Amino acid sequence: MRISSFFYTLGQGIKNLGRNKWYTLASIATIGACLFLFGIFYSIVTNFQHVVKTAEEGVSVTVFFNEGVTEEQILAVKSELEKNRPEVREIEYVSADAAWEGFKEEYLGEYADGFTENPLADSANLQIYLKDVSMQPALVTYIESIDVVREVNRSEVTANTLSGLNKLIAYVSAGIIIILLLVSIFLISNTVTMGIAVRKDEINIMKYIGATDFFVRAPFVVEGILIGMIGSAIPLIIVYFVYTHAITYVASKFTMLSSLLNFLPVEVVYKELLPISLAIGIGIGFLGSFATVRKHLHV
Amino acid sequence: MERGYRKKRLNRQIPEDEIITLENVTKSYSSGAPALNGVNLHIKRGEFVFIVGDSGSGKSTLIKLLLRELTPTEGEITVLGYNLKRIKHRKIPKFRRNLGIVFQDFRLLKDRNVYENVAFAQRIVQTPTREIKRNVPSILATVNLAGKYKNKINQLSGGEQQRVALARALVNKPTILLADEPTGNLDPNNSWEIMKLMEQINENGTTVIVVTHNREIVNAMKKRVITMKKGVIIEDEEEGMYIDED
Smaller CB count within 10 Å for chain B: N or C? Predict the structure, then answer.
């Protein structure tokens, strides 16, 4: 392709946006509305998952050992678990002294001075954090079968709730995203068909004059891509401001929840939302125009 | 039968100056009588030909076959050495660049001005911008529209619009100019102006084929006239006349 033809094609694509103002606006509005909903929804879902994940990371299993079990034995169990159980994220060894210190600090404060020796002599334990909470029951069963273990404390309810909630969010989000995409594809194919109907004569003349398929298609595809870009940029900008305002508002109004609701900063959300939205917008614009022009090429 | 056809085609050498050849061309659609029935037609380089006939006579089908918008059901069509029955889809644009086409309804781009409409044809065949800037004003001068190059299409009269369409058809310097009822929407004065331009174009060496209903023009111009009726050529005469339908 000649350089001048390239710029002509590009220029025609841009001019086409203005020539079919209503079609352009309708398409941008359609893509924009879908991606706006997508953006809002995506932000909520990622934050939810973030909250769930943070909560999950705090869930631990505490393992206590029989009387007289030495520190070496406990550490051997620790390294064995680290080596053979892939679901384990981190194991912390809490010695009897450390357990007493922690207990003193938390519950006794200055009254602890009356104790001369450690009343929690046999409470050396392992705090096990998991990668995936749903693996907890299997791990607990395994640890209970180790002979030096006295007791395993776990927070079963939390673990089950969290992994259930996580699954629910995943299903619901997949469902809503699929519905949104279907709706947007339906609306966009309609608007593109409308736009092509307006331009059928032009395509026809081009074919009679001897335009190649590529040359007929190129301005429409440029136009489609531009519509996709604008249609994804607008909701991205709106969602950006809505999001930043929403998290500061919620954080200031519901201060007591702030420890529970740990919002993601907008940059983290946009690291994925930005490329995904642009790709969806441009992809729909490209495919919509490419496929629809194709139908009219055989003149 | 098929073999016989082929043999005949191969035996007959197409003369060098013959640029349109139809041999036993039949075009039938799924239902009804064929639109064209065993048509033979030979047109030489530089000819001026009228094709006349009522609606339903097969004129439109003939034009569509020459443009390779349709392919014949039977027979062979050769235009400028391209076998239109066998031509590959991706070669069609290159073939069509040899043809200039004018329609009854002008088919101009109404959202663009006169200059842009003519330049459009050059852009499509990827002419460099420098040449477009030279060619378009010169062709607009030929059709007497040099002063109106900035006008929008809907600011022009019918005759002016058809001249823009003619300029668009000619700017790529076609070998053949095909005009389908070019004066169908014009008053007599404008019709004559268009026909004079076509004659002038023909004198400069372009083969001109005009499909028309305009009796006065056909009878006055004394060109070759091909008369069609119900899918066959019933008359083909040099300096022919418009035959009245009984």
Answer: C
